[in-house]
């Protein structure tokens, strides 16, 4: 089928050009066969989507005309937390649990498609995209809990869910998993075994593969005592665990923790009680050395991939910025409550305002954070996999270079830019902490 000039022009800038070309040809054939006409109206956005994500390409073909209408109607006003919550209520129209879960999976994927369209159409910047994806994850989790019988109004449980890591900081990307801790008030629950079984059912519902895919992968390793600990933690056990002396890396982890599902205020009150232990008056040299040593270990074990650049774990990557903010938050957080934030961006802004970080250094790190998170987002979009590395071989990373705005003769400059950014980040890491290299 002959492609018109607008489509050809868009294909020239598509990330995965071959995938986009094959998919738009197939789409136009389907439209002709089904008598749908020229849909969507924003055909260039569809081409861009086909070039950006095989995962969402499959969704578009699966949903057909419905998906096309979503592309034309995508706008930020429909992606507020309240708008998403109203949309999700449709999933509860019938009592059958399997029907409810499948409807919710469909709505979650369609909402994520809307977020992607706003991202591709420059209606959302990197931070806004991450905030929308985090809100979607929280709402999805809450709905699956309700369907699984775990919300307080239907179960009587006093249960809170703590989100960790990127979820806590409202900085989730496409393909992010859910790092969770389940807290309960022992006085409100007589049968902990029954509660544990119900949460096990919840986790199966979240992670089971279905026609509309899974909701999310779930990571529970950050709960007290890790995989050796109980699946659900009483508030008393949680407080006792964190009131004892812990390793610095555990304190770092807890700087990225907030209630994402709350009941009877047990999540907020539990965190409030342990904050003096997290944001304590540490020996500065000890704190600095421990964080540097842990960063070196993570880079050695996860960030030193042969023939690849790792934007998260590697030298000068996202984790360098995270660990710098952890260091300053733990060093000064007991004096400056504004530093007790779960967001890396917010922490950097506060460090700048408090003049703990040089303003130019803070701005460099904020720009680097957006740049590196932008690479991570584009890497994950194609298959919705939690990956953070790309090949050093130029021919292998051409789609990523194009995704980052480096086309044709400018493509080699993408790696130059990446190396420049990572060098600046590592230089600042070594300036403020113990040197790694």
List the SSEs and their pairings:
Elements: H1 5-12, H2 17-34, H3 43-52, H4 54-63, H5 65-73, H6 81-88, H7 97-120, H8 126-147, H9 152-155, E1 159-164, H10 165-168, E2 178-184, H11 192-207, E3 218-219, E4 232-234, H12 235-243, H13 248-254, E5 257-261, H14 266-278, H15 284-302, E6 308-310, H16 318-332, H17 344-353, H18 359-381, E7 389-391, H19 398-403, H20 412-432
Parallel strand pairs: 2-3, 2-4
Antiparallel strand pairs: 1-2, 1-5, 6-7
Short synopsis of the structure:
Helix 11 links the parallel strand 2 and strand 3.
Q: What Rg do the Cα atoms give?
A: 23 Å
How many strands, what sense, and barrel or not for the largest sheet? 5 strands, mixed
CATH class of the largest domain: Alpha Beta
Principal-axis shape equals globular
Distance between the termini: 55 Å
| Total helical elements | 20
Whole-number total of structural domains: 2
Hey, roughly how much beta strand do the residues contain?
A: 5-15%
Topology as H/E string?
A: HHHHHHHHHEHEHEEHHEHHEHHHEHH
- Overall average pLDDT: 93
**Could you say which structural class the secondary elements and strand pairing correspond to?**
alpha/beta
Low-confidence stretches: none
Looking at CATH, which topology of the largest domain would you report? Beta Polymerase, domain 2
